[in-house]
Each structure stands twice: as structure tokens, then as C-alpha cells.
Design goal:
about 80% helix
Amino acid sequence: MLSTSMRRLVRVWTLFVLVFLYAPLLLVMLNAFNTSKTFAFPPSGFTLRWWGDAWASTGMWRSLGNSMVVGLCATALALTLGTMAAFAVQRYRFFGRQTISFLVVLPITLPGIVTGIALNATFTSALGVTLGLATVIVGHATFCIVIVNNNALARLRRVGTGFEEASMDLGAAGFTTFRLVTFPQIRSALLAGAVLAFGLSFDEIIVTTFTIGAGDTTLPIWILQNLFRPNQAPVVNVVAVVLIIVSIVPIWLAQRLS
């Protein structure tokens, strides 16, 4: 049992950690309603003007649409390849299985700038591909696969193969067994992996910088470009507040589904 003084110390330390984590976010929220056009503190007044400016920003909406497209496509690609890799590693025994498992996970451990440089060189020099949203999708899928693969792999290890073997012993074909037995057991893990992968893709900026084409922008790129432009800081704060609110949803869903 902790003593009374120790419990108080733990509470104070917990409060300190929470303030350390969320005070900057609170400042962004305050600046979204600040009449000042800079990041001045304390706020000089209250206004909703910047919310109207953000709503009317065509560049913001175009960038948001691009981020949605990239995130959804990268997540779909990651779901397919990540799940297949998890099944291959967990359900089959073959030479080099552990090496493949290591190589699948490796991309997410590499610095984003290294991945970005490697992808840029591959697309432009080796393949001669014009950079655009398609190359961004491929770039994002390289690390989104890891999220899906890890979730699927953990669930496959947990459920085992007993129900699948029983289904096939009773005469069900491989696809039928997957559809009626395996998929229902791993469905929530795949959904949680997809939600996390989409969130990771949506706010990625380093790899995006190296793989996006001229004239294209995603929302994080748009925020970076407009952050220090005259009169744009308040609009960027508004977009940041909306992203903070929206980001709560996938994290909550992923925790509920895992």
C-alpha cells in the first residue's frame, strides 16, 4: 500500500504529465478564437472570424480531399498486403519466415526522411515515374502495412487454428473457412489496424514531402506552407483544432476494437 504522501506525489506527477502533454494543444485551441493574427498570448479578444475564413478556403478543402484519398487508398493497400503477410508468417512454415517477418516490420522503424529519400530515388531515378498522389499512396502504404500486419499477427496468434481445422475437417473449402470462421475472429483487429493506419497516413508529412508532385498538397503540407504566411496563422489554428477533435475518434475506436 502506498502512503498518503506517496499517493499525493503520484497525483501531482500525473497532473504535471497531463499538463505537459495537453497545454500546447490548449494554446492552439485558444488561438483559433483569438482576434490576434499571430500566436500572441494571452489572447487579445474573442472572434469566430477565422472559422469562416477556414471554411471558405478552397486550398484547405482541396488538400483535405487529397489527404482523404491518400489515406483511404493507402489503408486499403495496407489491409490487403499486411493481412496476407500476417497469414503467411503465422500459418505457414517455410525457409526465411523470420527474415520476412523482420523485413515487413522494418519500414516503420526507419526515420521518415530515409524512407522518403529512398522512395523519391526509386520513383524518379529508377522507375522514371512522375510524382503525384499515386506515389504518395505507395509511400504511405510502406509503413501502414506494418500497423495492419502487427494487429493481424497478434490476433492470429491468439485465436490459433483449432476452429479452422475443425471447419475443414467438416468439409468446408479454404475460402469458406476463411469467410465464416477466420475472418469473424480477426475482423475487429483488422478494423483497428485500418483505423490506425488511416490516422498515420492522414497526418504524415515527411514521406509525403519527398513523394508528392508539384502542385499537389495534402492537409499537413498545406498547414506547413501556410503556418508562417501573413494572416494565415489563425486559419491554420482552426484547421488544427478540427484535426485534434477528429483525431480523437480513430484512437478511441482502435482502443475499443483491439
